[in-house]
Amino acid sequence: MSTDPNDLESLVNRRYEHGFVTDIESETLPPGLNEDVIRAISARKKEPEFMLDWRLKAYRHWLTLQEPEWAHVHYPQIDYQDISYFSAPKSDDDRPKSLDEVDPKLLETYEKLGIPLHERARLAGVAVDAVFDSVSVATTFKDKLHDAGVIFCPFSEAVIKHPDLVKKYLGSVVPHRDNFFAALNSAVFTDGSFVYIPKGVRCPMELSTYFRINAANTGQFERTLIVAEEGSHVSYLEGCTAPMRDENQLHAAVVELVAMKDAEIKYSTVQNWYPGDENGKGGIYNFVTKRGDCRGDNSRISWTQVETGSAITWKYPSCILRGENSVGEFYSVAVTNNMQQADTGTKMIHIGKNSSSTIVSKGISAGRAQQSYRGLVKVMPQADGARNHTQCDSLLIGKNCGAHTFPYMEVKNPSAKVEHEATTSRISENQLFYCRQRGISEEDAVNMIVNGFCKEVFKELPMEFAVEAQALLNVSLEGAVG
Amino acid sequence: MKATGLNQDLLRAAVEEFPADEFSAARSSAVAKLAGVGFPTVGDEDWKYTNLGLAAEISNGWLKTIIANHGAIAEQSNSEQVAMICQEIDAHWIIIQNGIIASDSLAELDGQAGSGISLSKLEFADKDDADDDAMSLFNVALLRDGLRITARANATTDKPIGILLADSPSSAVTQTRIVIDVGDNAHLRVVEYNLSVDPGRQFTNSVVQANLASGATVDHVRIQNRADDHVGVNKVTVNLDRDASYNHNSFDLGGALTRNDVITKIAGKGAAVNLNGLYLATGTQHIDNHTSILHLVGPSTSEEEYRGILAGSSQCVFNGKVIVSPGADGTDSRQSNHNLLLSDRAEIDTKPELEIYADDVKCAHGATVGQLDETALFYLRTRGLGMDEARKMITRAFAAGTLSTLAVTECQDHLAKVLDQRLDNLIGDGQ
Q: Which of B345, B354, B369 is closest, CB to CB, to A405?
């Protein structure tokens, strides 16, 4: 039951589709990190004093920290002085007022990525805040959102226009001292998205950001902050790609979510950063801190992620379930192929009474990839009636890959119910045989089985994303079957 | 605040006071190796939930006494409890008191335990066969005696071999070391009983190594029924060759702080590992079970089930690791950990881990934490049972499963008795 080895090879050698470099002038700081660089970033972004102070505080703390080594990933030491911490398309001073003014080359880039800003965005009813190498270049549907009272803008704009909100919530979920990469991000982040949903508002459309690392040698350090006031609702989509480059690039983002009483935030990610070639050369180091705070009673935060790219992923979208009856959810599909490494999972911290959480993690490992699920479910003594169910399954494709599970459960309340289940197996020969017998090619059969394996997670994705995710999954696994 | 660590200077000085014997070279080499390491701390991932500060404190105090007494270690005599256990569990008993084998029990038994089974004092060969982890090194550093059980090919025993670790705080720190070699197709049944002869603060550190040749079987029941002040660190390492099988049942009932490491390595096709455990904790007891099953080759199977009942302000830890090496195709592994929390101050930290580097495998693990089922309680109440009785019945049923898998049936009655007493305490404390 195997395909022709030559076919396999050609499939494995498939090039990364989104690997192209947009040749536009960008204004980049020379590599290196010190207080002057941070001052320069802050000055260039015309930030108020408090932001600079915050950045410097984070930087000074970062200097005292050690890079974490506990994750089940291996990579050569990163030289943080060899990274350029700021890269912006040149036309920073006279930013485009509308899409027509956007550099056509940029638009072309998005076209290639399959996210035509104007056409498809309008059709799909999606407002896109596109982050192109750290500076948001175009934001659509602003007016419609403005009518609803929703603030959706680049982070740098929020710092200037809504300093009080930024001051109040920035670092309130992921403090600048949180961890090595979060501290680094706090010091040097250049842009990101800011979302504020006022009390009782249901955001009229799904919000979306598309991240892309373009310039060589630049790290992308974006920062996203979403605040959902009492009784509000928002669904946020995030997609990522990066061009193909030989050297590794660092991406250390921070996402903070705050859900007040009865509020609901749904955060979906499709991550397709360049994974490196089949020998593990190049690719993105995706070291991300994502955390949601269910601050109010009955609040709900749901993370859905489809992780197919990046050379190394280090990412644990978490929920702090502070409010009574608050709900945290984590749905994840992670695919690693070739030499990719992923150490990903979630943390659910139950503090509020009757808080509940659901974790569904589906890992698919192929080629020589190593993938780990690392999760923590912690029930504090006051969290009466807390409930967690964790389901975490791995599918192995090929002899040389690995799938690992490190689930931590810490329970300090007797009325809590915590359950963890995990299985690891390869694609069943019987299932494959059955499909083949019905005339389905092996490749299609595997895709079908894999999609079935991931179904529980895909159904959590917004519709447009679910279709894309499925396609992405098939592409990522092409050539992995033998 | 820095936790108390092992005082290496005291250790070195105390070991120098030990009378010269066949372990001298091994001891000094272990002291040297331990110098840069020391006891593990909660900063070490494997010791995240278990603090050995108390063990270090007891050790430092004891080392001072040893230096003052120029290496002399207090002797102890047999107790009634020892006699009772020997009577209740029908086995060939070897008594090890504070790490020293009661020589009469060994001489009597050698040759009688079954044809092909020999019992002898452990001789450290030229090579230092201790693992290089800190607690094993500490074990060798203070080693004065050890037991070797050898079963030749096809040997079997009529009765299980009982190893009674009768430790008394008259010597506050004790090292025990047992090596078990089992030949082709031999079948050995072992009951290891961990007992505190008198109450009082004591730290015992034991290492058991078992090597199973092709087709060999070892049934190993470990009963830990220590006194309230006892600190115990126990490590069992098992190597399995082709078609060998190792069945482990552990019962942790007493002690202030207990840490067990069961490390099994499957190096031969068709080998099987079965690990079962029950831990009951109340008061401020701390019981930490770490298990590791390494499948180096396949096909091979492993099955593991640990159950815990926690009352009072106790804390229990379960960390079960299954590693499937590259090429260990055909591995079939199942692992589960179930916990019943009876009190709002008890804490359970559980982590069933899988590390899988081969694709033709079936691995599953699960863990649950919960409380007594209200519906089941209600059902029993409608049948006229009192609340207490209903709680006891369900709790007993939860624990009883571990007795049914017992490979050494000789200890069943004794275990049922001590479990019952222990459960009564727990249910009382749980309310």
A: B354
